Amino acid sequence: MDTEKEHHADNFLLKLISEELEASAFSRDMCTRFPPEPNGYLHIGSAYAIHTNFTIAQRFNGTFHLRFDDTNPLKEDIEYVHAIIEDIQWLGYDPGTHIYFGSDYSEEIYNAAVTLIKQGKAYVCDLTPEEITEHRGTLTEPGRNSPYRNRSIEENLELFLKMKNGGFPAFSKVVRAKIDMGSPNINLRDPVIFRIIHAEHYRTGNDWCIYPMYDFAHPIQDAIEGITYSLCSIEFKDHRPLYDWVLKELGISEPPRQREFGRLSLTGVVTSKRFLRQLVEGGYVDGWDDPRLPTLRGLRRRGYTPESIRSFIEEIGSIRTQSTIHISLLDHCLRQDLKEKTISVMAVLQPLKVVITNYPEDVVEQLMIENSSENEALGKREVPFARTIYIERDDFMEQPPKGYHRLSMKAEVRLKGAYFIKCEEVIKNPETGEITELRCTYDVLTKSGTGFTGRKVKGTIHWVSAEHAVKADVHLYENLLLDQDIPKDNSKDWTDLINPNSRVIAKDVLLEPFAQHADIAQKFQFFRHGYFCLDTKLTSDDRFVFNRIIPLKDSWNKR
After folding, report:
1. Residues labelled catalytic
2. What is the pTM for the complete model shown?
3. Which of 62, 144, 193, 523 holds its CA 20 to 30 A away from the CA of 367?
4. Count of CA atoms in the C-beta half-sphere (13 A) of 298
């Protein structure tokens, strides 16, 4: 056990659990769970919670459960269930057959409430939601007892059964636990444990019209499934006494233990479901899978890899409190993952025509170019080279400043994997003065890979053969919000917060022909521009649409 303690020293949660199990072990195997509500999509913060539960189960040779907290039919949908399962599997935290639904335990949870009523530990209350809040008191003032708190057990049982059978309007009555209205912990001031909702449930239909509150259902569901540790984010710490109270009053032997970890936030990133919904429903973004959003579906569409997200979470380690991590760490983990597994191809985003006047008109040369400067194992590919090519418009300047190492008049650069070229003439539009074409010459002796040891040039630029170029649209993404510090009170309109350049669309970008064989899941490095992938939503049989996953270098310090 000493080795185990040493191994867990840098992870407070693992250390805590190890010490607790050493002092008082369970007679059953370790079992953790992740309990999402199927009323929205998972985001990067959710990944941290999933990772915590999954990896701790693994460390102690246990099992990991995915359990849907589907106890509110007004907001839940099967669409979210499928999306959550898919996202968790994509992340690499597959629960296998251990997928459960809180709604499957409706009868058991109802019976648990009946048990508490029979013990005099719960009662039916007729106060409105507003009146319940008023009676609850404040952090400095105790609450007041409900006038219905002393109903007889028989009356409470009769009323609860009538609630179950649809005898009352929605929200007209609730069941409350009878604990202590004077408790310094507001969560123990006779919390609501059941309410009436007349709505069709996506799984149980109209079988039920009463639904448990999460704080009541959660410990019962954990007990039913044999969960040993209910690992929650830090905001549930004040709810732990209620969790323990429910299990104790129901007489659960070897009850699950709730323990908390820190909640993860990222600079400049909205993870609040309420705020995300405003962005989506307000039309500020292209749905829940918009590549600018921190939803897992958005990150997947953008091109983030599950390996990079797992690496990011592991880099953070175990956190105790609310923690805000700079998003540059996530970007770093993504670059580290992509740089050794991506093929580097040439793409010209702002094309400028170049005619190599001394190159034969009817010749197409197949050049062998390395697929990656980071990983030789990725091999090489053939790239066609011909008389007319395109280069980036900003790779040429007529009057370059000092230190400019790209193409200029009478100066040479190397074409990536090809030859040296020199600009001899500039063709302009006579009306606008815009440069429309460059006339260049090449030196046949400077072909890459031939052992040329003559003159040297400082600049290398990328290019695409005009005859063989593949057209595509490219979406260039930046941070969605102008300010990394999002107002907590939502005091600003989203219009004032959204970066107007968070998505820039480059039309008719030219790519080397290798890109037309891209697999939908494949990632590329576009020489000098960053890492890219096909947009799974917008790409069609007759049009390629690429997303820039991330630039080659960190640009956060420039924002």
Report:
1. 37, 263, 273
2. 0.90
3. 523
4. 23
